[in-house]
Amino acid sequence: MTKTRKLATLLATVSFGALVAGSASAESLQDVMKRRGLTDNDVMAAAKTYNPTGKLDEFMVFSSGGQSGQVIVYGVPSMRILKYIGVFTPEPWQGYGFDDESKAVLKQGSEVQGRTILWGDTHHPALSETNGESDGQWLFINDKNTPRIAVIDLRDFETKQIVQNPILQSEHGGAFVSPNTDYIVEPAQYAAPLGGEFAPLEQFNEKYRGAVTFWKFNREHGRIEPENSFSLELPPYSQDLADFGKGPSDGWAFVNSFCTERYVGGIERGRPPFEAGCSAKDSDFLHVINWKKAAELVKAGKAKKINGHNVLPMDVSVAEGILVLIPEPKSPHGADVTPDGKFITVSGKLDSHTTVYSHEKIQAAIAAKKFSGKDEYGIPIISLDDAAHKQAALGLGPLHTQYDSKPCVAYTSLYVDSMVAKWDYCEGKVLDKVSVHYNIGHLMAMEGDTSKPKGKYLIALNKLAIDRFAQVGPLHPQNHQLIDISGDKMQLLYDMPLPLGEPHYAVSIETGKLKTNVRYPFGTDSRTEKKSPFAVRPGQERIEKKPGKVEVFGTLIRSHITPEIVEANEGDEITFHLTNLERAQDETHGFAVSKHNVNLSVEPGKTASATIKANKAGVYPYYCTEFCSALHLEMEGYLLVQPANYKATGVKGKEGQVYGQKEYDARVKANTDTQAVINSVVGYITSVNFKDFPAVVAMVEDATEQLGYAEQNKKKSEEFAAKGDYNAAFLWAEQWFQYQVKAADIGLRAKTFLEQNGAKKVEAAK
Ligand code: CUK
Ligand code: CUA
């Protein structure tokens, strides 16, 4: 098929597509319900979750990716997965861990005591807040296994920073943010000597410690400042989940714990296992911490340094009155501050009770120094009676609590019952229950851990799926279930399989609050968020060679890589710096070199680099890995690695094909015809109110740019024709045509968009 005919076919396909979209199915809704065995309730649930094509979700969810070390992003109510964000684990589609810039970020977290850790056990994502409300700027997530916190910028959903915890060997209950995101909390989990030294288990009580780290976040720079961060030394209890106070409790943090028995197992030593000794007592301790005062004490020089990190010793915290303990029922889990900041709920996994602690009562007890005793480390204990507002029996295995937009309404997950309990935490009474499938861990209501929850939907993050999905072998996906909480009764709407690790927690935000970029400013290093020193403008591309080193400063644009030929010698180190020159939305180019561990994702405006060692002579094609345009497959080039002793033979091979005036004239005629087609599309677009559609305005800008390139190449071909070099003239005329195709592609997309979105005729200009 000739290329002009291809274009005509493209035009025809577009109008055919419109026809198909307009035709309706002959079956009635009742027919479909009958055929698929759907009840009225099912259809109602479907109607509540279905997003017709082009309709966007009201909320966006950021779920931990569990053992995948990533973050999973999906929409609510449709439950459509939108993105996986590479965090602690390389992710090739995004080039994460494959380009030099992101490798530097990954390395901040992966190089641990001479080992390279390429996975993470992500548990709790946290969205940044302003005055206790989600502001959509940053996302933080922790790794339980290798204590670390990552910072993700929500302008481009990329990981920007990873900080390793300098004193912990294990953690769990972070990340959670203070109401203005000046601190991020990261409590320890399994006690160990702080700083990573060895000590025998026999010295558990003396040498092993728990801790909680408060990472200082600099909002202006969007980065954690390790030097301004600090930790509190805590007893060797297993600190668990944390939350920051807000409103009246702002300045305080709450950390639940288990295994305050400080039992060390040792089945092989003839001792009962950890699980027996760690749940022997009837209660553990909620840690109540005045973190604002702790920050002041650190500033005043009261901390000691462990691995260069500020640690407030327990005796200082006790003497300064910034740390107290309160009993919490058997094997507790969760510590969730209510939206108004007045209460904290903690559940007992092995107790059917959820306890509502009153911040006011706690403060009164602290002020009156009304303590029931001290623990073995001298930390004062407030009795449960003096701190509890209410206790509610919600069901078996209560874990986590989230809040509704309605006052006093909370939702608590019941692991053993496989249910969600809706209850009134002011009165301590159950309002409703719904079964989930199965064994729910966390649950999450829309912005349900902020000071302004949005209600509407709740997600159950179930641990087991069992029979909910078609079987895919012994390892099942996770099951996130969407529940409608807008009415008095909860309604289960949707099951979503998540096949990427076991997410523990998720957070959500109104989609409208996110201010994401569709492109980077020209030449951006997305990981530092600054202009890359390696960015080049079109026409400035170059290859720099030094002994042992080849450095390529190139560009990417539909549909070619500049340069297309790179020569190197065996043993050279080669760095490609590539800038995507596109401004059009979604015009990402990839870059891969055959048989090398390189894949870049270069989004419009981005500059990314890849460094490889040419350790073996040979011919290595490189190419674009994103299907970016009709001639994507032609977006290619050659890396030629010459052997050390290579001598050019001087024999010049023949070029594949030589063109003359006849081919040139035919090409020019075809291009002129194509231009007529383009002009008719442009004529249509400008005859309607396209300026009222921002998406179309962007497309028109892009198409205009492509036509500009077409014009430049037309001139080049004419110059060669004038000199009688018809071979070169023909090839530049081909390139002129390529830009016409790109312009036509975008123009047709714009035309279809306008037709489908009710564009109206406007008065002819002038
Ligand atoms: S934990 Cu997994 S169910 Cu890591 Cu927040 Cu509670
Ligand atoms: Cu660029 Cu394919």
Automatic annotation (TrEMBL):
UniProt xrefs under InterPro entries: CcO_II-like_C, Cupredoxin, EfeO_Cupredoxin, N2O_reductase_N, N2OR_C, Nitrous_oxide_Rdtase_Sec-dep, Nos_propeller, NosZ/Cyto_c_oxidase_sub2
Record-linked Pfam families: Cupredoxin_1, nos_propeller
GO cellular component: membrane; periplasmic space
GO molecular function, one term: copper ion binding
Domain called Cytochrome oxidase subunit II copper A binding: residue spans: 545-653
Keyword Protease belongs to the record: no
Predominant place of localization: periplasm
Keywords: Copper, Metal-binding, Periplasm, Signal
Segment forming the signal sequence: 1-26
Source domain of life: Bacteria
Keyword Translocase (UniProt): no
Location in the cell: Periplasm
SUPFAM superfamilies reported in the protein's UniProt record: Cupredoxins, Nitrous oxide reductase, N-terminal domain
Protein name (database record): Cytochrome C
